[in-house]
Amino acid sequence: MVDFRIRNVHRRKCALICLSVAVLITYRNFGNLRGVQKISRKVGLSANSSQFTLNGEPFRILGGSIHYFRVPRAYWRDRLMKMKACGINTLTTSVPWSLHQPQRGVFNFHMQLDLEVYINLAAELGLWVILRLGPYISSELDLGGLPSWLLQDDDMKLRTTYHGFTEAVEVFWNKLIPKVVPLQFRKGGPIIAVQVENDYGSFAMDDAYMPFIKEPNRPTMVMDYWTGWYDVWGDLHHVLPPEDMVSTIRQMLRRGMSINLYMFHGGSSFGFISGGLAEPSYKALVPSYDYDAPLSEAGEYTQKYHLLRDLFSQFNSEGFPDMPLLQNKEAYEPAIMYQHLSLWDALSLTEGVSLNPLKSRMPVNMEKLPLNNKNGQSHGYTLYETTITSGGLLTSGDNVKDRALVFVNKNYIGLFKRQNWELPVPDGKGQRTLSLLVENCGRVNQGRHLDKQRKGLVGDILLNNIPLREFTIYSLEMKPNFIYDLYQAPWKTLPENPRYPSFFMGQLFVYSYPSDTFVKLPGWDKGVVFINGVNLGRYWSIGPQQTLYLPGPLLNRGINQIIVFEEQEGDFKVNFDDTADLGLAVDIQ
């Protein structure tokens, strides 16, 4: 068991670039940056044949990964303080290109995505930083953190020297790099190294790509140790026994190795940012990124945390900061859904529909839809409607990505998914409307299939072997503006037997200072939960995940609006618990 896990650590080697002019600070043990006199910063992180050095002296990286984009900004300080109190001296974090540049020419480094604030906070708390710039980061994100608009190019070859890809990378990095240059060692900042790319050995399509991506060309190596694993829908919750984890880390430390814990704190993949797996068959990832990490999804101490703190204390004579107090968790009263809006009544609010519904003779995949300043649709659902005059056999081939609820005259007739390519259509008189509500369940985040991750209808749907034509297409990306517009929609009192798919609205009342809680939806089938306009992520009765983490900072004191989009069956009540339920667990093999 131990040997296997050490081999995994070595297998996850990544290219690192030590910044060209680094730091001259004696940083022994776990000293706080604020307590170290800044002398002349000329010699930084280096690697000889056996170990890292800092200021020419031996330096062990005790690192941990926390992704700023998976932790509510209001909790950044809390999570990093808990990291520091465990004995970690280096924060590693990845930079998601897809979130920072959602459209060509549109960049977002504000609020939840304020990378500079996050890095400066790490420095304030006495943490060094290893920054993972990508452009591909995997991190179980949709398309591995690459923006979906890259796939508008039919010839796109991701993670290669294909000009369309490298030009896009350079545009993004020209915006990103100036933000982090002042934060490097030679400028007095905490960044000791930058990692480019990730797991390219499992992809390796272009021998010239890594030399292109790693300029200024001073690579060293760092190793990641997986503290747990991610989960996919329809599977079990993966855990790594704490004793196994600590035993392996103890052996690595005794051998003088530097380590990075991936993840130290996983957090949550809010919204639709989760990725998927391609092999052996496609499976979508759940929104929880708890990862069975030392800090839980909600920032709670686990047995792993306490064991690590005890272990790291053996390599430190100065002691650690006190462990921060935990946030309160609350089991709020259930929210009763009292209003209802069918999908069909909400279509007038979809992007572009009120002025110019998209008409197309052929199916158009999400990325090619003329939306978002011609950057296409990234996430969510797309509704395709056409007219049929007969029944028969409807076949999809492999052209539905990833699931499609199928309707005739708004009546549900069946489901297309990757293992189900045929569907009988009942006979009927005259012209009828055939509708396919297609969900992008998450583009795969690793492997050799990234170039094939276009979503929606990616080819023809056949009725009795004849391709369907003349579509009206509605985008249901469910971005914040759409959800806010829903509040003004013509909602109706909830009927006894509502039509699905539908939106349901209710209210959560918070009578004191808002606390963290967990949304639980027994009796609901599959859909998405929005709290005060924020997308918490998908739920699905097949599990393993049974609760969605709802951080207190997303709640208001008083009334909080809840909207649930349910595809097929609802219970009309949303529960709140004070503990997470990530499903039946299984040990990682």
CATH architecture of the largest domain: Alpha-Beta Barrel
Largest beta-sheet characterization:
9 strands, antiparallel
CATH overall fold name of the largest domain = TIM Barrel
Overall radius of gyration: 25 Å
Report how far the terminal alpha carbons are from each other. Answer: 9 Å
Low-confidence stretches: 1-40, 217-222
Total strand segments: 36
Instruction: State the helix count.
Output: 10
Q: Briefly note the structural class of the backbone.
A: alpha+beta
Provide key terms for this protein.
3 domains, 28% strand, TIM Barrel, nine-stranded antiparallel beta sheet, Jelly Rolls, disordered N terminus, eight-stranded mixed beta sheet, 589 residues, alpha+beta, 10 helices, 16% helix
What does this structure look like?
This protein has 589 residues and is of the alpha+beta class. It is built from ten helices and 36 strands. Helix 1 packs across helix 7 (242-254) and helix 7 packs parallel to helix 8 (303-313). It is globular, with a radius of gyration of 25 Å. Mean pLDDT is 89; it is low at 1-40 and 217-222.
Topology diagram in text:
Elements: H1 2-11, E1 14-18, E2 46-47, E3 52-54, E4 57-58, E5 62-66, H2 76-86, E6 90-94, H3 97-100, H4 115-124, E7 128-134, H5 163-180, E8 191-196, H6 209-213, E9 219-222, E10 224-226, E11 237-239, H7 242-254, E12 259-265, E13 276-277, E14 283-284, H8 303-313, E15 335-342, H9 343-346, E16 358-360, E17 381-388, E18 392-395, E19 400-401, E20 403-408, E21 411-416, E22 422-425, E23 432-439, E24 456-457, E25 462-463, E26 466-467, E27 471-476, H10 480-486, E28 492-493, E29 502-510, E30 517-520, E31 526-531, E32 534-540, E33 547-550, E34 558-566, E35 573-577, E36 585-587
Parallel strand pairs: 5-6, 5-12, 6-7, 7-8, 10-12, 11-36
Antiparallel strand pairs: 1-8, 1-9, 2-3, 3-4, 13-14, 15-28, 15-29, 15-35, 16-27, 17-23, 17-27, 18-22, 18-25, 19-24, 20-21, 20-23, 25-26, 29-34, 30-33, 30-35, 31-32, 31-34
Helix pairs in contact: 1-7, 7-8
